[in-house]
Write a structure and sequence with these properties.
The chain is mainly alpha-helical. The chain has helices spanning 2-26, 31-60. α1 (2-26) packs across α2 (31-60).
């Protein structure tokens, strides 16, 4: 059960981090531009979490 909570918190952190980066990159335009930047940032953030997960399980798993 704890792994499900960990996955849920990880997904929330992914969305939060991508939205923060998108907010910084949007510069006050409309929602369509925000969601386009958000999608691009998700493509950037997801591999970072994958690498972090591999490193975590390599050293601590």
């Amino acid at each position: 059960m704890t792994w499900a909570i960990g996955i849920g918190l990880g997904l929330l952190l992914l969305v939060y981090l991508a939205s923060e980066i998108a907010t910084h990159g949007d510069k006050g335009k409309d929602f369509r531009s925000f969601f386009n930047v958000f999608k691009k940032d998700l493509i950037f953030v997801i591999p970072l979490f994958a690498v972090a997960g591999v490193l975590y399980y390599t050293f601590f798993g």
